[in-house]
Amino acid sequence: FFKQKTAYEIPLRLVGSEMCIRDSLRDDGTVVPEFLLARTLNYRRELVRERDNLLSSLEFDRRNIGKIVNGVVIISQEEIIASETRIEEINDEISSIEERGTIFSD
Q1: What is the pLDDT of residues 72-106, one digit of tens each?
Q2: Burial tier of 23 (Cβ tally within 10 Å: 0-12, 13-18, 19+)
Q3: pLDDT of residue 16
Q4: Three-state helix/strand/coil letters over the chain
Q5: CA dist list (Å): 83 to 38, 48, 58, 93
Q6: pLDDT digits (tens, 9 = 90+) for 8-53
Q7: What end-to-end distance do the CA atoms of the chain give, in Å?
Q8: Is the CA virtual torsion 68, 72, 74, 80 positive or negative?
Q9: Are 8 and 38 in contact (CB under 8 A)?
Q10: What are the angstrom distances between the C-alpha of 21 and each of 25, 45, 69, 71?
Q11: What is the pLDDT of residue 39?
């Protein structure tokens, strides 16, 4: 019989700045509870993954801006600007998470 582990039973594997989040204290000196830490780290990882995907596609987009395929412009400057804006938003959110140590406010 196999029992599936819950998210709280799976050990966290932390890298780099995630360890800083783990070790961070709140302003009042209390430690971030483990279940909030797990949710925070998972959300941060999702943001990093989204940012990395956007960065990869942005390279392709910049090489192909204005190209026309079957009479349709495949990449516009507006699409590139939207991707760059989203990358900036993600970077700001990641920085905020790393400063606060959690995605949740008190």
Answers
A1: 888 889 999 999 999 999 999 988 887 776 666 55
A2: exposed
A3: 54
A4: CCCCCCCCCCCCCCCCHHHHHHHCECCCCCECCHHHHHHHHHHHHHHHHHHHHHHHHHHHHHHHCCCEECCEECCCHHHHHHHHHHHHHHHHHHHHHHHHCCCCCC
A5: 28, 14, 7, 15
A6: 444 555 555 555 555 555 556 666 667 777 788 888 889 999 999 9
A7: 41
A8: positive
A9: yes
A10: 8, 12, 46, 49
A11: 80
Q: How many residues does the chain have?
A: 106
Q: Any idea which residue has 């302003």 for tokens?
A: 27
Q: Which residue has the tokens 């400057």?
A: 77
What tokens does 58 get? Answer: 């942005």
Question: Per the structure block, which two tokens stand in for 84?
Answer: 């760059």
